[in-house]
Amino acid sequence: SMLPKSNSGEPLDCRPVVLLPMLYRMWARVRARELDRWIQRPGLGALPGRSKGAEEHGMLFALALEYARARGQWAGGLALDFSKAYDRMDINMLEHMARQARLSEWLWRPMINMYRAPRILKMGSTVGEWRYPTDGLVPWCPAAIFWMALATYPWIRAMRSLASQPTVRGWVDDLTAYVSGRDETKALVTAGVEEVLAYEAAGYLVNRDKSGLAATSPAAEAVLVQCAQALPLQAKGVVQDLGVGHGTTPKALTAARERWHECCARLGRIARMPVGPRWAGLLAGASAMAVGAY
């Protein structure tokens, strides 16, 4: 079923929802844990460090930019968002990736078979006929995030192999990389754009409206725009990364002040809770301080 995201009425402005058999969902939930352990064991995870929270990783990007600004240094990076990433995923490519990664066939074959199972498409009051899909990760499949991590790993690996050792992070179909230093930042953006062009040649598409560049100053952003002309990417003054706005415009600074107000409000609510200092500290670290830090 195609559920509308807004009231535009456009077919592409819909979110697909696929009904999966409960037995498969239970099986895939267990296998998804095994797939996660498989990808984390050799250090191939898309998220650096142990934290899995979006707030913490959004905080680290903002902290790197603010620290560099305070020291009068260069820092910057790029944030990428793939357009319709699940829908554009070629199922044959999924099987190829699984074989190249040397995954056991008993682990991935049932998932691929479920993705290839016939479907009926419903949009509004219109219902189609049974069709066999050739593209598309199944939304709400417990293992879908793993497949996206496998698909985005070549970009992540290429960025992590740079001599400047940038911080690189993948969050489903959102990719972010940032580093300090003028030459290092320019090399990072140039390499990142080259890798993205290879992805687009394979059928992926980067959302130019949601992707962009962020740096410590408008002058630095202008230099990075020149490095990203092949795509191109723009520095719009504010970039949304995991829902967090980074930038140098008044809009970005206003958003930062609003986050600080929200942080203070959360601390106030935590202070009124009937819990001891230990639990209050845990709540502050997991919620209020995460918001205020970025």
The CA-CA distance between the termini, in Å, is 37 Å
Mean pLDDT: 82
Uncertain stretches: none
Strand order of the largest sheet: 6-7-3-8
SS field, number of helical segments: 9
Give the % helix. 40-55%
Radius of gyration: 21 Å
Please give a quick description of this structure.
This protein has 294 residues and is α+β, with helices and mostly antiparallel strands.
Give the tags.
294 residues, alpha+beta, 4-stranded antiparallel β-sheet, two-stranded antiparallel sheet, 9 helices, 10 strands, 14% strand, globular
Give a written overview of the molecule.
- There is one protein chain.
- This protein is an alpha+beta fold and 294 residues long.
- Helix content is 49%, strand content 14%.
- It has nine helices and ten strands.
- The strands form four sheets. A four-stranded antiparallel sheet has the order 6-7-3-8, with helices on both faces.
- Helix 3 packs antiparallel against helix 4, helix 6 crosses helix 7 and helix 8 packs antiparallel against helix 9.
- The model has no long low-confidence stretch (mean pLDDT 82).
